Every structure is written in C-alpha cells, then in structure tokens.
Amino acid sequence: MIDGFIALYIFMLAAFTGYEIIGRVPAILHTPLMSGSNFIHGIVLVGAMVAMGRAETTLEIVIGFIGVFLGAGNAAGGYVVTERMLEMFKSSRESK
Questions:
Q1: Long-range contacts of 77-85 (CB under 8 A, 24+ apart)
Q2: Where are the chain's structural domains?
Q3: Which helix (H) or strand (E) holds 15?
Q4: Rounded to whole angstroms, how far apart are CA atoms 46 and 27?
C-alpha cells in the first residue's frame, strides 16, 4: 500500500509534470492532444467503475456514482469538443 504522503508526492509530481508538458504544446497540436486526453478520461471512467463495483457502504457507492457520472460526462464532452474543432479545419468544398 502507498502511504498518504507518498501518494500526495506522486500526485503533486504528476500535476506539475502535466502542467509543464501541456503549457509547451503549440496551438496547432491542441486538437490531437485533446483526442489523446479523451483516451485518458476513458481510463479514468473505467477506474471509477471498478471502484464503484468494490464499494460496500452507501457513502462509497454515492462517491463512486458521482465519479462515474463526472468521468462519463468529461469523456463524452471531450469527444464532442474534438469533433467540433476538427470541423473547423475542413474546407468548405469537403462539406458539400
């Protein structure tokens, strides 16, 4: 098991690394990057579903449901936004 301090350290390191990497992405690469992050949201959703499946108390079930609900909304919204952004790059001739 990971102790709380080590888990916090890993979380802070991941947050800092993610911020530094995302901050250096050129504007032209934001759409492909967003598609990749949708994949990560899908993994988070699966993790929330597994956690909810192992929940025993009512509080754990409620928190698990909220996690699944927010994860699904985040993944679906990301795909909608990515589709919309990709539509902006199509020429007007292709849409006819």
A1: 78/34, 78/37, 78/38, 78/41, 79/38, 81/34, 82/31, 82/34, 82/35, 82/38, 85/30, 85/31, 85/34
A2: 28-88
A3: helix 4-23
A4: 30
Residue 10 structure tokens? 């890993």
**Confidence (pLDDT) at 82:** 76
Residue predicted with more confidence, 84 or 12: 12
**What pLDDT does 66 receive?**
92
Q: Rg of the Cα trace of the chain?
A: 18
Token reading at 6: 């080590």
Whole-prediction pTM:
0.58
Both tokens assigned to 26: 């050129």
Contact 14, 55 (CB under 8 A): no
